Amino acid sequence: MAKEIERKFLVINDSWRDQATSATAMRQAYLSVNHDRSIRVRTSNDETAKLTVKFGKTALVRDEFEYDIPFEDAVEMISFAVGSVIEKVRYTVEIGGFTWEIDVFEGAFQGLVIAEVEMRSEDDRPMLPHWLGREVTGDRRYSNQALATERLKPEVVHAVSN
Prior knowledge:
It is built from 3 helices and 9 strands; from the N terminus they run βββββαββββαα. It is mainly beta. It starts with a strand and ends in a 5-residue tail after the last helix.
């Protein structure tokens, strides 16, 4: 088991792109969701797949269990998605000893760009890059689970200008 401790922000411009060290095309689907838990399947670059189970009521810290699964199984599981399948490209940017993950959404959520930073402790204070906008850590409308399973108003989803 691992603790997931992360902060999440909207991204206000593309100036992070020249610092990106990787890009991974992802498809992810939720197989089961509840207010304090979820089961998710995710494929990466049409090659690998993971099954993730998360528990926890807070936006900042949750228990997370993640397992590699056969890609073919993941593709089949995605057909059982609750709600929509999320498509995005995840970029990584290294800043001050922290790895920022920038998700550029495609499909129904095109125009949405969210950055998150995973921390080792709730007391960590990562440097906040200039390309970050409003923090949305506690705003569940911006969680992947809510995006996939709830109907959001377009003005909420497309609140980011590039």
